[in-house]
User: What shape does this take?
Amino acid sequence: MPFSFFIKTKDLLVDELIPWIKDLKATYGLSIKIIRCDNAGENVKLQETCKNEGLGIHFEYTALGTPQQNGGVKHRFQTLYGRVRDVLSGSRLTKATRTFLWPEAATTATDLDAILIKDVSGVNSFTKLFGEGNEISPVSILPEKFGETVIVSDRSTIKAT
Assistant: This one.
């Protein structure tokens, strides 16, 4: 299942990702088993922190100078960025607002990827990870058009009389 994280600088990767990994385990009982990445410094630091935290994650590094090992990921990013451009272009927002909302558009495109793309058995990656009928489905919060004003209401506190 794809997830999007946006950080200002690469050195913040550990600070953002480690709490998310722990929350995934605590909240949903899901453990990350493998992280595939390049040998960038922030990834090596992430591996060291995961080891020190006892998270039991195995790291697989791509060989230097072999972009072929990242072909699938690069294709997926290219597809995702195309969706982001389409979402923002169709929003009729100003250029400054589109630039400001780019991370939100990318998150929306990532969520759409998780719920709209299905495997040969007809199951999407969101359902595979969180199960059928899960209450946190991103489908329930997506507007019909990006940039559209929506009202989100929490009806969990309404009492029947």
About this structure: The longest strand covers residues 34-37.
